[in-house]
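Q: I'm building a small set of examples for a reading group on sequence design. Run inverse folding on the following structure and report the sequence directly after it, with nothing in between.
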């Protein structure tokens, strides 16, 4: 029992992750890198957890299963995070979701496919940006997960790397001096465990999103990768549930959603710089994130493997990320501005293209309400990079795009997407007159500004957010 006596001199809560992972590595590699007897350690952990694993709840079992599979499967890199855990976690979350009836889904599938041709014709009149060579694809939730997970990993990787490194350093500081030689390689294991936890949490978020996203444009940037999806995507189960909440025909709902998704696809095909620009901005911001090491120290000290919910709550709440610096605030404002311009343009073009669809205002309002209570984009960016994409910003951007088309024409409006330097600035979204003056669509600068300020005040009053 020499191993147990040595281990018990150390804080059990700080080393439960290390020891469990040591067992996984020892069994998976048929070797023992730490000089421990795996069976002896297992017996000790069972005693600590209440005997024969009785203290481990269902979530705890899932939690450790993910860690064991990540390290025993051999699919991970020695120097990186095994992101396959995110995919597995997303699909497991998704497996518990409610599904609509097969008959309802097939009705919407047929309606969506039939809506593509008239939607393309309507858009030809509403935008100067040409059509895509690909039509939108009707996919299910599982396909959305598998086709988008790589993009989410790209967004999250800088944060995940920071979490893993900080947790390893924080926990390593707690190792007593007499134990450091014995667990010499354990700090690398801690980094892997932290990365696995983060990947699992990311997967849960993706799995929940897969139950909400109606189409590719819901996220304001294409997350579904692959040339086959360049024309856009519809998530069949979610559209079926969405339609069930509306007293509107399946045909009208499909037409509106087809116009909206095709407009989104056209924009990103035309402005080929747009997707890498947004992805680069997200990555740049995330790489500047630091972590609250005091929170990590508390987590290491209090961690209970029988109830790992606290780890997931800490990672998903954003509590590890301290207040943003001024530079980060500026970067976040620029990113939110770009996403609002994208969503606002899609809304403006969709409104114009569906002006002869009587049900369009009701469908648009339902989508706005869905977004107002926390849409997919706000949830994901809020969790990963702290971005809050409020519907009010989308409305302001939509109003600006509509104003440009009204004062000028759709050719002028859409030509602003030819280069990022041509787009409306943050100040111009807040002061429409300044943009109209730049585009040669206003009178004097003062008159345009005054007129625009009055329009803004009236809109705010009607929306009930005049004091914001």
């Amino acid at each position: 029992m020499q191993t147990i006596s040595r281990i018990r001199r150390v804080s059990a809560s700080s080393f439960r992750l290390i020891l469990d992972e040591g067992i996984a590595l020892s069994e998976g590699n048929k070797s023992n890198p730490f000089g421990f007897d795996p069976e002896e350690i297992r017996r000790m952990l069972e005693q600590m957890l209440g005997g024969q694993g009785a203290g481990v709840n269902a979530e705890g079992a899932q939690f450790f299963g993910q860690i064991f599979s990540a390290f025993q499967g051999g699919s991970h890199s020695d120097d990186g995070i095994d992101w396959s855990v995110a995919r597995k976690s997303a699909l497991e979350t998704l497996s518990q979701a409610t599904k609509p009836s097969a008959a309802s889904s097939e009705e919407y599938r047929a309606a969506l496919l039939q809506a593509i041709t008239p939607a393309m014709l309507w858009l030809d009149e509403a935008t100067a940006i040409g059509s895509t060579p690909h039509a939108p694809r009707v996919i299910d939730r599982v396909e959305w997960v598998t086709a988008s997970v790589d993009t989410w990993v790209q967004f999250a990787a800088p944060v995940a790397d920071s979490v893993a490194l900080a947790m390893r350093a924080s926990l390593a500081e707690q190792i007593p001096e007499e134990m450091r030689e014995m667990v010499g390689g354990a700090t690398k294991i801690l980094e892997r465990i932290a990365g696995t936890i983060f990947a699992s949490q990311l997967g849960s978020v993706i799995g929940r999103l897969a139950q909400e996203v109606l189409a590719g444009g819901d996220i304001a940037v294409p997350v579904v990768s692959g040339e086959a999806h360049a024309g856009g995507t519809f998530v069949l189960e979610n559209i079926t549930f969405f339609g069930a909440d509306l007293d509107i025909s399946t045909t009208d709902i499909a037409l509106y959603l087809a116009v909206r998704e095709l407009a989104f696809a056209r924009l990103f095909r035309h402005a080929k710089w747009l997707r890498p620009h947004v992805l680069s901005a997200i990555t740049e911001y995330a790489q500047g994130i630091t972590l609250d090491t005091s929170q990590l120290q508390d987590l290491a000290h209090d961690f209970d493997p029988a109830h790992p919910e606290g780890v997931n709550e800490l990672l998903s709440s954003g509590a590890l990320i301290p207040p943003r610096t001024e530079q980060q605030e500026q970067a976040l404002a620029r990113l939110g501005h770009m996403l609002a311009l994208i969503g606002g343009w899609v809304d403006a073009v969709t409104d114009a293209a569906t002006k002869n669809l009587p049900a369009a205002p009701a469908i648009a309002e339902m989508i706005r309400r869905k977004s107002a209570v926390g849409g997919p984009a706000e949830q994901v960016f809020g969790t990963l990079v702290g971005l809050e994409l409020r519907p009010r910003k989308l409305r302001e951007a939509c109003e600006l795009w509509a104003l440009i088309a009204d004062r000028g024409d759709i050719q002028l409006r859409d030509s602003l997407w030819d280069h990022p330097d041509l787009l409306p600035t943050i100040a111009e979204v807040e002061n429409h007159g300044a943009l109209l003056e730049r585009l040669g669509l206003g009178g004097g600068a003062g008159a345009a500004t005054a007129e625009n300020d009055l329009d803004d005040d009236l809109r705010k009053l009607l929306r009930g957010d005049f004091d914001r």
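Confidence is low (pLDDT under 50) at residues 1-38, 44-57, 70-77, 444-451.
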